[in-house]
Amino acid sequence: MFNNIGPMGLILIVVVVLVLFGRGKVAGLMGEVGKGITAFKRGVSDGGQELENQRQQAADAARDVTPESETDRDRA
Fold first, then answer.
1. pLDDT by 10s per residue, the chain, length 76
2. 45, 53 in Cβ contact below 8 A?
């Protein structure tokens, strides 16, 4: 679909967008897009850290499943 758009076509699209919305509006919109991308990356990173913490807690809980009475008997 967009295979036929060359450099001149892209320049024309940019000029039309600038004329319709103005330079300030486009700059503000790009700033908001940048903030959204940053927030998304932060959310993905926080979610990954949360999953890693949950995995670590599950691994710590699963390490020793021997009842304390048996553990004490083995030490004596």
1. 567 788 889 899 989 988 888 888 888 888 999 999 999 999 999 988 898 888 888 888 776 666 777 555 556 5
2. no
